Amino acid sequence: MKRENSLYINDTIVALATASGVGAIAVIRLSGKEAITIADSVFKPHSGKSLLEAPSHTVHLGTLESKDQVIDECLATIFKGTKSYTGEPVVEFSCHGSNYIVEEVIKLCLAKGARLADAGEFTKRAFLNGKLALNQAEAVADLIASDSKASHQVALQQMRGGFTSEIEGLRQELLNFTSLIELELDFSEEDVEFADRTQFKTLLSTIKTIVLSLLQSFSVGNVLKNGIPVAIVGKPNAGKSTLLNALLNEERAIVSDIAGTTRDTIEETLHIGGIAFRFIDTAGIRDTQDQIEAIGVQKAKEKIEKASIVLYLFDVKDSSAQEIISFVKENYREGTKFVLLHNKTDLSTESNITPFDNEILQSLQGYTDTLLRISAKEGNNILALKDFLSHYAQSLNNTGKATIITNIRHYEALHNTLQSIERIEQGIQLQLSGDLLAIDIREALYHLGSITGTVSNDEVLGNIFSRFCIGK
Length: 472
Ligand code: GDP
What we know:
Rossmann fold, seven-stranded mixed sheet, GTP-bd, transmembrane helix
């Protein structure tokens, strides 16, 4: 399906597709109606045959030449017709990775009529030529940016289709109903109902269920993409900075004996079991009169609010069971995992869970069931903590949901769809006339369509594709 927005698609574009700088190979990509013609005018295959005659999806060894001056010996891969990434003729020159060669080849293509590609323009063309839905195109950028197994998997699943067909299917069904309801408007004098309201309600409730489940998957999707935020909290001197260092295996946070030295928050990313965790060290939580420290304490509370996992560290010398219990109960939030860490166990002779630990666990039933005895300083049980984090993250990942959304634009569009659907439901309840219902249905269709790009505008597209690098 070719999309309408194809004003400048007649141009042939060129750009370096690999990272700039010296490398073994540099790939220069040409895409557009004239791609093969332009390539043919600068590239001489060793076979002596013209690229114009060569079949699609073939690779040719030859020389890139400018006015009989050989620039490089390289490979040219050609894609003819619409069977290419962009959905139009494409040539990729795999040259030797020298900045000079790249510049000369691009200049040569420009001289033959190509123009420099904008950021993301190859992918934008793939979208405009109907090769990718908009959300799939966005996933291409996520895939390039992915730096952990989890973010890679989510992006790959989306790029290969993800929830595209599901959304498009729902939109199509909704569209069918709109047509029927709009048909009723033509017969408004005659009080007919072409659109079966019971079937319509069932469809709305199906859409609502799917949209809600996608919305819920956002929190999981977002943490898998950006890293799971973990807040490390506890009173001053509980050992938070020492724990962060132990987790990261290096001295990055400042460790000191003076209570209240970690005033600001420090964030470090660590990959455990293919999942990124963002560890947030915070100023000690306690009531304080000190102005600067008060800001730090406030920040700690904010970090807890943003965290998916809270590591609450305590030192038995310095905390009563009651204090710990009250802290967890006060700061508990549904959906956030609280992990109690009994620190400095190297100073104790006990190696198993103590009555103190048991008392806390008993009182916090329903809030948390996880308590680990660690020594941040000696590194005891840090591996067990990492293991726990990794398993917990896996359990988030295995929510049984086939599709996960990670993109805030999709989240907003789904949220708007949900609101429109709820208004339609109310409208049916209130027996509103078809023309009024049609307004909300059109809105729901618009929001659903904006996810996959069935409806789009230049501003939205510009916003999305400008975030890509040039050459993608
Ligand atoms: P924070 O204020 O919570 O960040 O605490 P720090 O990490 O700065 O630690 C405060 C003090 O407790 C430092 O002297 C650490 O060396 C010490 N400490 C931290 N963890 C342990 C531990 O597991 N065992 C012992 N014995 N001391 C620790």
